[in-house]
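Archive maintenance. Older records in this collection stored only the sequence; we are now back-filling the structure field for every entry so that each record is complete. The fields below show one back-filled record exactly as it appears after the update. Entries are processed alphabetically, and cyclic-guanylate-specific phosphodiesterase is next in the queue.

ARCHIVE ENTRY
Title: cyclic-guanylate-specific phosphodiesterase
Organism field: Bradyrhizobium vignae
Length field: 530
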Amino acid sequence: MRLLRPTFPFAALVLASTMAFALAGHFAAEAVIRRQQAHQLDELTEVVLRRSEFAVDFAAASLDELARRKLVSCEPGALQAIRLHVYQRSAIKDVRLVKPDGSVICSAYSETLEFDKGWVDRRDMLPSRDKALSLFRVEQFGGAALGVLRDIDGSSALVAIVGINASLFDIMPAELRARSDVILALGNGEKLGKFQSDAGKSLLELISFERNSVRFPLHATIQLERAVLASWNNEAYWPTVAVALGLGAIFGILLARSRRMEEPVADLDRALAAGEFKPYYQPIFDLRTGQIKGCEILARWLRRDGSVVPPMNFIPLAESSGRIQAMTWHLLGSALAELKPLLKTDKNFKLSLNVVPNHLLSAGFVETLRRTVLAARVSARQIVVEITERDELDDLARAAAVVAELRDHGFRVAIDDVGVGHSGLSRLKGLGADTIKIDKFFVDTITVDASTTAIVEMLVALAKDLNMTVVAEGIETEEQLRALIASGVEEGQGYLVAPPLPSARFNELVVSRRVTRSGAAVSGDTVLVA
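Back-filled structure field:
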């Protein structure tokens, strides 16, 4: 019996510790899951807002095009040209010429006036950050539409009537779809569109996620029942609790906490000094022919032990710690050295480099880029500076000046992550870039979501109006390729052709593609993307 006595307090301590860890794990799992749910729903609300902003940008660009062509008239010839312009843009239902007070003078499709249940006075239209652009709700028998007014001169303005398709807001996950509403409204509360999978249902004990556009008087809301969150995305609960039960785990966390901030940054510095960050290259190809027309430099961390650290595990830290600039210059120098023979042989080959906004706006950026490229004896027109949108460009005027300076020296400029980043299309126009890159988010859903197809077509039309080229990112299937071609996209990148590759394998791929194309040219066949 004496031998058993020490065992009892030990067992009691283990039991108490296990219960404490289990309780801590429970609360930690609940907190993580709720925070992740809120983050995902905030992102979905942002998607609704971005899609709505795209529609307004599309309408504004269309009106600007009409104004540039001087089609601001009720003459029969002008109205015929406007009707053709509207016909080519399915998202726009009508274009009307109005007086400064907002009253209609004439309409491209006069019969659409019969569907109006009323017309808003200019005083009730809502201004945008662009003072010459106003938004208002158009009441029609078939439902609400969005009016986008662009002032042309002191005597007239143009209005685009934009159809609000509720399917554009069909973005909710399957588990939440039946117990949620997605609502788009103007800044004054007037609803423009609402998606409900079951229009007759009523929701109980609602929780809402809301976003306001900073550029337009638009307000997006996602409402859902609080109870439905209990079973959504809770897969992490039991793994988290299991980890919490591990003996000694809590002590390891406490010991590591003090080093959590300094050790990873020190690791980055050591890796930079040791040259462990290597450029990998993902081909950018012609969607129809499969010809490789360039590549994007992507960072990989190759540790001395042979392990590879994925970008998501070090790029955010490199950006927040300021190491991203040194890393960027190191990657560019290595890439120019590795691909110099290819760049010399093919003067049309383009090498794309990712640059975060604060690096773009840093002192001496353009001069350092010029010196680096000149030292490699590579033409500036073969270098594409991709401005990433993880951080917002706070000073648009300064950024536009830097972009203009880059283009004056022969460099090309692309805007990355279009559609999910910070920039609206009006800001893209203000930057004066050459290329927009459609984010993988849209490519993933283009074959299953009609609203995505409409957005991609809208982006292509806007890029054409702005004399920009379009590149689609993340192409993985032939179905996506065909859908992008049908939407007017000409270039892309993704695992369908190749993942990011080290220089030797990338050069082999380029050579094999050229051999394949040469053989096809001799036989008269067409080369398709494999």
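Update note: Residues 1-8, 251-261, 521-528 have pLDDT under 50 and may be disordered. The chain is about 40% helix and 20% strand.
Entry marked complete.
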